[in-house]
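Each letter names a residue; structure tokens follow underneath. Both lines appear below:
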Amino acid sequence: MPSIVLVDDHSLLRMGLASLIESLGNTVLFEADNGKEFLDKLDKHKLPDIVLMDINMPEMDGFQTTQWLKINHPGVHVLALSMYDNETSIIRMLKCGAKGYILKDSEPAELKAAIHSLMDKGFYYSDLVSGKLMHAINKLDDENDGLKNLVPLNDRETEFLKLACSELTYKEIADKMFVSPRTIDGYRDALFEKLT
């Protein structure tokens, strides 16, 4: 039963989400209005398994808070929960360290699947995220001379991206590519760097 923290500046949404999460058999450790309040409430001796993180918040937004978690508590899985479905927000949030991304208008079944996937595989890439990543890779930045601006990916990064869009865990991807899980993290970070 995962322990979860909710970070969102909309109180009503947070309360409803807390009820839904508990009805799915999870524990809500605490709630916070923004990243700063989250850091104030965070107990390093009782870290959550998952943080549901809004992006647009006052004082300290989801990008900054997720980046802080990636540096200070990399074992905590951040699931971005946002209204934004644009490539820039998704890629930036993943680059900051989020392990998944779902929209606020998602069905409860998707939230349940995301929580299960984060605990089981360590990440959750919905069809939305996979599609946006694939589109970003193939997007031409300059309509007049797009070919020179196409994001260059090497064969291993392309292979990793295809496998990351499957149901495989990072460990299974590492085994399939005959590399260490740490190398897989490197491929992921390099992709996020190139796609922003």
Observations:
- The beta strands are 3-7, 27-32, 50-53, 77-82, 100-103.
- Residues 140-194 form a domain with the Arc Repressor Mutant, subunit A fold (CATH 1.10.10).
- Residues 140-148 have pLDDT under 50 and may be disordered.
- Residues 78 and 98 are 5 Å apart (CA to CA).
